[in-house]
Amino acid sequence: MDAIVKMLEKHQPFFEKISRNIYLQAIKDGFLGCMPIVLTSSIFLLIATLPGVVGITLPQPLIDWCNKLYNFTMGVMGIMVAGTTAKNFTASMNRRMPAGKVLNDGSTMVAAQCSMLLLAVTQFTTKFNGSELSVFDCTSMGTRGLFSAYIAAFITVWVYKFCVSRDLTIKLPKEVPGAIAQNFRDIIPFGGAVIICGIIDVVVRNLMGVPFSELLIKLLSPLFTAAETYPGLILIQAATAFFWFIGVHGPSIVQPGIDPIRLANQAENLQVLLAGGHPAHSLTFNMSLVGEFGGTGATFIVPLLLILFMKSKQLKAVGKASIVPVAFAVNEPLLFGAPMILNPYMLIPFVAAGCVNVSVAKFFIDNVGMNGFSFVVPWATPAPIGIFITTNFQLIALVFVAIIILLDAIIYLPFLKAYDKLLCDQEAERAAELGLESDGAAAIAANASAPVVEQTIGSVEPTAAAADSKPVAEQSGPTSEASAKKDVDGLKVLVLCAGAGTSAMLANAIKEGAAQTGENIASSAGAYGQHTAIMDQYDVIVLAPQVRSYYNDMKADTDRLGIKLLAPRGKEYIDLTRDPAGAIKWLRENLD
Predict the structure, then answer these.
(1) Cut 0.85: pTM above it
(2) Given CA atoms 395, 397, 400, 404 in this order, what sign does their dihedral have?
(3) What mean pLDDT comes out for the span 294-298?
């Protein structure tokens, strides 16, 4: 098992390179920027449909109004994603542009949306009340058009890069105001992007007889069908857990490629449900509630197992500290505190539990009558509650939840017990070396250096960050309390993670620590990828461990803006979230 971990460590830079791919980042961040659309539209759907589950009939005008809000939000998801993906892809491309040449992200955003409409939407005329109307087919404006949205975004930004890099723009005299001059500079790249997508649209429609978006769906449908089989679901879940196990945020790599089909399937499930049928798609957006039951690795039951069955003081303490965050799918305290990441004892259960869960879910959907997930709930919704809601409040879903909790406990318990024995032996050895009784061993275990497995994990960090930043312990800090106070007073701190869950833990600790110490420090939490518009409002940005592999890209932006960038390591980050005063002290020590 140790040999496997060493092999994974050796190839970690390669996996990190994948996670930093600018196309994957643009898709992930573009989709994340549109999550308010997904969540808000689902609220209106729940309002329209939930009362009917308990026999309450709402007025039809209210139902129609809720459905209209859904159609005018989720129904244009594809258009919005085209814009946000282009905006984020532009930010990545600007880091690679020659000095003095910058792409206008506002212009690329609008151009991508126009290009997406050309690739996905059909226009035709019809008669209405004796008049001839021009009509747009809205079918592909939503989730069915997501692939076209991504292609439109990438084409647009590359056209802009080509034109701006070669000065293929309209230049006006320097006396012309900058905003007006910028509009003229964008005419050629804007027109080029729209024309290219327009030509693609004409060619595909004339040769294939369908819009480009429908052609993509037909070409990719065999792949989507394969992904919804047992092996496909298992492969997706295993890859997600595997990447996280080696310290790379798995969902950021795996999910961008399947999000379009997951959302389209969930929308189709909803249509079937509202029509009175059985939603049968298992590969849906909220299948993550099952595969990542409590977080990647299906760790929902693990904190309780640590509290009830482990003897090691370290594991019991981690269980108590992580039980609430894990219930809301924030399992970093467990991943880095136990630790689970790169822990040889945890590889098999960490990968296997989620795979078993999705397999059982597909069996229940295909054979037991449980609905496929139809509604969308926030990712931080406790998994048992989320599963019950998204299956339209079926009692069989509660039976399913009980079964996967039991199965996950059975999978994890033997490996946790083996790891617990290792830690207990190490605690006893340290106590014996110091001539302490068993009662003293607990205190030593809680405060002494990390056990062997944890020390190995702590040494494996994203190479990008290691190459460009000094370890925290080596960075210079203030020499006196007075100067330290002056350095941190009035600071604005932004903490970033993948989904604003883990970052909220440290941001809240900093707020609490500032209140305890009387410091004037403001802290906020955010998601990496959605920070570009607000980062210049902060003095310090902290990267959570799950996004630490983006350090190099982030450093280029923070250096340009004069912002201090910090990236604590896994266990250190979790320790800071539990120690508000220590978080303030850590800020002092790491400010130049």
Answers:
(1) no
(2) negative
(3) 92
